[in-house]
Amino acid sequence: MGTFYVGWLDPLMCEGHWIPEMIEIAGGRELIGRAGEYGAEVSWERVREAAPDAIFIAPCSFDVSRTLQEVGLLEQLPGWRDVPAVRSGRVFAADSAYFVTPGPRIVEGVRILARALHPQRFRDPLPAERLAVRREGPDGSIRWEPYV
Question: Which pTM was predicted?
Fold first, then answer.
């Protein structure tokens, strides 16, 4: 599943280092960030062209609640609603501590990614504060709810 991991919102940045490998282990494929490289600024147009099936928003040092305070920056971008991940309801806000801090905690990060990317295969619940999912109502209303 084509995935884009948002490492920062303004400027928009992809993430490298070990995060693309975590996504691969979880059954996805990072479309923009590269393993072993630094995170880098990326244009919104490049993200749109990549057409990710899933987007994980976890700016460095942000927990879920802080990410949700800033996520409007993405939702204002032109063509946001046309991205496959947005249309299919696969946009997630995650606690970056499970991805950007090297150590045993990244194992939980892989579990979070796998649960979100493949809910039919990984059904064990997650603590509510680790991941939220964007939901859009039939009337166009948007809400974020814990992905457990």
Answer: 0.94
